[in-house]
Specification:
The structure holds two protein chains of two kinds. By secondary structure, chain A is α/β, with parallel strands linked by helices. Chain A is built from nine helices and ten strands. In chain A, the strands form two sheets. In chain A, strands 6-7-8-3-9-10 form a six-stranded mixed β-sheet, with helices on both faces. Chain A has a four-stranded antiparallel β-sheet with strand order 2-1-4-5, with helices on one face. In chain A, helix 7 (178-193) packs parallel to helix 8 (205-211). The radius of gyration of chain A is 17 Å and the shape is globular. By secondary structure, chain B is an all-alpha fold. Chain B has a single domain, classed as ABC transporter involved in vitamin B12 uptake, BtuC (Orthogonal Bundle), CATH 1.10.3470. Helices cover 75% and strands 2% of the residues of chain B. Chain B is built from eleven helices and two strands. Chain B has helices at residues 2-28, 35-52, 57-80, 86-108, 133-155, 157-167, 169-173, 179-205, 211-226, 231-251, 254-271, and strands at residues 124-126, 129-131. In chain B, strands 1-2 form a two-stranded antiparallel ribbon. In chain B, strand 1 (124-126) and strand 2 (129-131) form a beta hairpin. In chain B, helix 1 crosses helix 6 and helix 1 (2-28) runs antiparallel to helix 8 (179-205). The radius of gyration of chain B is 18 Å and the shape is globular. Classes of the chains: A alpha/beta, B mainly alpha. The A-B interface holds A 58, 60, 79-81, 84-85, 90, 92, 94, 96-101, 105, 108-110, 112-113, 117-118, 121, 144, 158-159, 162 and B 156-157, 160-161, 163-164, 167-168, 170-179, 279, 282, 284.
Chain lengths: 252, 285
């Protein structure tokens, strides 16, 4: 990944987001920023509304209120595929890759929104193989035959092929062995260093905090804690916020 | 050999219907039962353009393709897009087939209309059997269109994107693929294909309203035998159904031809439920 100049302007800015499924609202008044070269971790227990928030940003769930800005542009009114084209990279939960296609086809599909042609897309595959050497040599393998960790690498590689401004990862550690989680988090760290803005939705607190610069904790669809990782004295504060054992700290 | 040529011709028509089903199926997971009626509409427009308007051949093909493609897009708009779930869409495509059948009958009546073939009508002797040029053209059309289908679906980004939409619509959206445009495009292309075949199928079958229903069923059997979503499957499935129908009709009697076709379908479904060239599908929950 090539280094990009880092600015302090947020690349993704979410304000007072209200969303849910159809008319059912499950997330209220959620706000956070994702800065270039930083990882914002959206944490919370199962059912807290993390994935729903990510899906709303991606345009998969209805937005009932609030704004979503990508590099200053309001994308709330755009169709999902246009948000991807605008620079949103999405890695969905459960490794939603195309399991019947080859690894190479999966990665090339990641660059579909660029409309640059197969040859040019093939040229940029090397960048992905540099980030995930385990995928090199597996180009012709059917993606469904890869291990869970390699499938997650394909999913991240797919999102990166679209040259996103912001990469959103939904539970990338789910179902993976601890050693593989470490590997995935190392790649997130590399992406951060390259200047990419990353929104990381996770349940695994330790893994997320190991790469995050900023933490936003959700519970029952609302922000219960928000702040930079550097100000956290103890991970237990986050864990307590998860289970409602501390008084909610207002978002900064 | 003449019976084999006749079976191959029937098979080519079934295969072309199955190919039309597949174009829509791979992009939207919709089984468009009305496709066979679109082809029937193509034969009527071919009759109208050739006999009534007396247009040159190129314009006949063009008119058939444009009108039937437009009707297919209307179908996508009113019978597919507002309906959620493939089961519901299956019913609405049957509804559109019935609607189209009614409208066609209202305009052109219930009597079969002879569509003149634009090429030679002289019977040929090939490998000891009698075959008409229109029949050879139908077989050629099946091979060419199946090859185009395979080349596009496996060799182009558009084709790979089509297959991706078929595998996981939401994941395809997250790769920046405009799945709605893809669905409309698939209906337009399958409609244009049905229209283009009108001037070739019409001279073989006549333009007759009931053609759609019989082709819908046999086309479905061809698709199921060959495998849902497969280009080579449509070709092999169509030819299999056509040959079984004509051979069993010839040697066992006409009343056995349908029985044998459905026996073959059952046998394939028992031995290979995904069809000869199909893949098992994984449901994402």
């Amino acid at each position: 990944m090539t280094e990009q100049p880092v600015s302090s302007e947020p690349l993704l800015s979410v304000r007072n987001l209200v969303t849910g499924y159809g008319d059912l609202r499950v997330v209220w008044d959620v706000s956070f920023d994702v800065l270039p070269g930083q990882v914002t971790a959206l944490l919370g227990r199962n059912g807290a509304g993390k994935s729903t928030t990510l899906r709303a940003i991606a345009g998969l769930n209805k937005l009932h209120g609030g704004t979503v800005r990508l590099a200053g542009e309001d994308i709330a009114g755009l169709a999902s595929h246009k948000r991807i084209k605008a620079g949103l990279g999405v890695v969905q939960e459960n490794k939603r890759i195309f399991k019947r296609r080859t690894v190479e086809a999966n990665l090339m599909l990641g660059g579909y929104s660029l409309h640059v042609g197969r040859r040019k897309l093939k040229d940029s595959l090397d960048e992905i193989y540099e980030l995930f050497p385990a995928l090199r040599g597996r180009a012709s393998t059917q993606a469904g035959q890869l291990s869970g960790g390699q499938q997650q690498m394909v999913a991240i590689g797919q999102a990166l092929m679209g040259h996103p401004k912001v990469l959103m990862l939904d539970e990338p550690s789910a179902g993976l062995a601890p050693a593989i989680v470490l590997e995935v988090m190392e790649s997130v760290d590399k992406l951060k260093s390259s200047g990419l803005a990353v929104l990381l939705v996770e349940q695994a607190v330790e893994a997320a905090v190991s790469v995050a610069d900023h933490v936003t904790v959700l519970d029952i669809g609302r922000v219960v804690m928000d702040g930079p990782v550097s100000e956290l004295d103890d991970l237990d504060i986050i864990k307590d916020a998860y289970f409602g054992r501390t008084a909610p700290r207002p978002a900064s | 050999m003449t019976v084999i040529w006749s079976g191959l011709t029937l098979g080519a028509i079934y295969g072309l219907v199955a190919l039309g089903y597949n174009i829509v199926f791979v992009t939207s997971n919709v089984f468009n039962f009305a496709h066979a009626q679109l082809l029937t509409l193509g034969t009527f427009i071919a009759f109208w353009a050739t006999v009534t308007l007396k247009l040159p051949t190129v314009l006949v093909f063009l008119l058939c393709a444009v009108i039937v493609a437009a009707v297919a897009v209307v179908e996508e708009r009113i019978a597919i897009r507002p309906v959620r779930g493939t089961e519901g869409q299956l019913v609405t495509t049957v509804g559109f087939l019935t609607l189209l059948e009614g409208v066609t009958q209202l305009i052109w009546g219930g009597q079969p209309l002879q569509v003149p073939f634009f090429g030679s009508e002289k019977v040929l002797s090939v490998f000891g059997g009698r075959v008409f040029p229109v029949e050879l053209m139908l077989m050629g059309a099946l091979v060419v269109f199946a090859a185009i289908f395979v080349a596009v679906s496996r060799g182009t980004m558009l084709g790979i994107a089509m297959l991706a939409v078929s595998e996981d619509r939401e994941a395809a959206l997250m790769r920046g693929i405009n799945v709605r445009a893809m669905a409309i495009g698939a209906f337009a292309v399958s409609g244009a294909l049905a229209g283009l075949l009108g001037p070739v199928v019409g001279p073989e079958t006549f333009a007759v309203v009931s053609l759609g229903s019989s082709l819908a069923l046999k086309g479905f059997v061809a698709m199921a035998i060959g495998g849902f979503g497969s280009g080579p499957g449509a070709l092999i499935g169509g030819i299999t159904v056509g040959l079984i129908e004509s051979e069993s009709g010839r040697y066992l009697g006409e009343s056995y031809s349908n029985l044998m076709v459905f026996t073959a379908l059952l046998a394939v479904m028992l031995l290979r439920p995904t069809g000869l060239f199909g893949h098992a599908r994984e449901r994402v929950v």
